[in-house]
Every structure is written in C-alpha cells, then in structure tokens.
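Lab notebook page, bench 4
Experiment: in silico fold of construct C2
Operator: M.H.
Input chain length: 158 residues
Purpose: comparison with the prior construct
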Amino acid sequence: MARGAGQPEFSLFEGESVRGQQAMLAGLCTRIFDSFDPDYLARRLPGLIDPVLHVAHGDGGAALGFKIGYRRGPNLLYSWLGGVVPEARGQGIAARLMQAQHDWAAVQGYHNVETRTRATNNRMIIVNLTAGFHIAGVESDDAGHLVVIQRRRLNTLP
C-alpha cells in the first residue's frame, strides 16, 4: 500500500504466515499491554482457524501496531487482539488497522465481525460503537470479569 511521508505502511499476513510472526507479536503486545503474558499468545496462536494479521509499520519498518482476527464461523471473523504502541497513539493507526481488517473480511466473504472486551474498558467499547459495532451481549470470562460482546455487519460484496 502506498503511503505519504511519515505515514505508516501496512502489511498483511494470512494463515500459517501469521504464526510465523509470533515473536514480533509478543514484542508488540509486551509494549502495548500493561500486563501481557507472552505464553498466552503462544498457547492461543497455534489453534486459530484461518488467522489474518494486519501490521502497521513506521519509518525504518518498525512495527507500530497490529490487528489479528480469525474465523469463528462460515461468515464470522472474530477480531481477537490489536493495539498500537504508546508513542504512535493518537495518529489514527488503530482506526486504519480496523478498517483494513474489515475491508479484507468483506472481500473474503465474511458478513460480520465480532469482538469482546471487558466491560470496564469504556474506551474500546466506545471506539467499537463509533466504528459501527453494536452490543450483542455480555458474559463473564474465566476470571469472573464482565465482558461485552460487540458485533458489526460488514458491507459484503455480492
């Protein structure tokens, strides 16, 4: 994808090539999330069905952020994990990663994107609502935290 001066470039990885990015993802997650356990990624990544990864790169190729999703049904992409490194936040990178993921999903024949976030993560819930998601339900996770399920219908191609 072409970019202007100072604008991030985006890379796409699909299927097995996503698993090959585990070390890069673990490094990014450690920078993005306060208490990230790299073993969580190592346990989950091998079991993902049809994973897709979008990565934003800055000047010099340094990874600035990512968005990873996987198939949860014939027409449902689950947007699992994503974020932007602290020094690159506020530049619209997360929104562009989300849009790239949704555009890709629509072309692939997905009809919906779903995500889950803890009910206390108001910022993420609002970002998702602004992007066209609606609240589809709530549940408790294994640790007993309330989780909000959000879903967005994609503009699918005929």
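Observations: The beta strands are 9-14, 52-57, 63-73, 76-84, 112-118, 134-140, 146-153. The domain at 9-153 is CATH 3.40.630.30 (Aminopeptidase).
Next step: discuss at group meeting.
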